[in-house]
Design goal:
The structure holds 2 protein chains of 2 kinds. By secondary structure, chain A is an alpha+beta fold. Chain A has 2 helices and 4 strands, in the order βαβαββ. The two termini of chain A are 19 Å apart. Chain B is of the alpha/beta class. A 4-stranded parallel sheet of chain B has the order 3-2-1-4, with helices on both faces. The chains are: A alpha+beta, B alpha/beta.
Amino acid sequence: MTTLDLKGLLCPMPIVKMAKAIKEIEVGQTLEAVATDPGVMADVPAWCRSTGHELVTLEKLDKQFHFVVRRAQ
Amino acid sequence: MAKPEEIFPENVLKAIGGKPIKNKLYMVVLSGDMDKVMAAFIIATGAAASGMEVTMFFTFWGMKAIQKDGILTGKSLFGRMLGIMNRGGLKAIGPSRLNMGGMGRWMFKLMMKQKGVASLAELYDSAVELGITMMPCQMSMDVMEFDPQKDFKPNVTEPVGVAKFLEEAAESRVTLFI
C-alpha cells in the first residue's frame, strides 16, 4: 500500500488530492495518507461523512497526521 | 438522499416547482478581488471533492476570475478604458484591502506561497479537474464588452442569464453569494 503524501499542503488541497486518489483504488481497498496541516483533524472525518467513505484511523504522530480511509463506493 | 418534502415546507416546494433538491452547491461570484475569488474557489473545490455537484456563476467583477491572463478587453472607447483600468485574469487581481497599487497582491502571494497555500491558478486547475461548471453572466459580459470566445478561459460555458441561475439555484441544497 502506498502512502499519499499531503505534507505541506493547506486547505482545500488535502481533500482535493484525497478525492482524486480514492477514485484510483478499488471499492473496499484502503488509502493511507500523511499530512502536516492540523486542519485535517476536522476535515478528513467531515469529508468521510460527506462522501460515505470509511475513516479507519486518524492519528497525530510527531507533528504529522496519519490517516487511513476505506473506499465505500 | 432526503426527499424535498422532508427538507422544505410545502409553500417553499411550490415556489421551486417541486423539483427534487440535489446534493449541489450553486455559487454566485460577484467579487473580483483576490481574497474573495480565493474563498469562492476553496469552497467550490472542497465541495466538489466531497462529492457535491458544483456550479459557479460569475457576474460583474467576478468575471475577472475566468478571464484569460494578459488580455485587453473592450471595443468602444469606454469599453477599452475599462479593460485597461480593470485588468482581469487570476494573475492580475489583487486583495480587496491593502492592495496599495499592487504591493499588497505581491505580498499576499509571497506569504501564501511560503506557507504552502495553493495559488489561484492551482485552485482553478483543480476546479476544472473536479468537473466544476463555470458560467459567465450574459448581461455583465455585454456591458463590459467581453468576447466569450476570445477573453474567457476554455473551460467556461456559454454565457447565461438570471433564469438559468434561478433554475439551478432552486435545485441546489447549498447556495452562496460571494
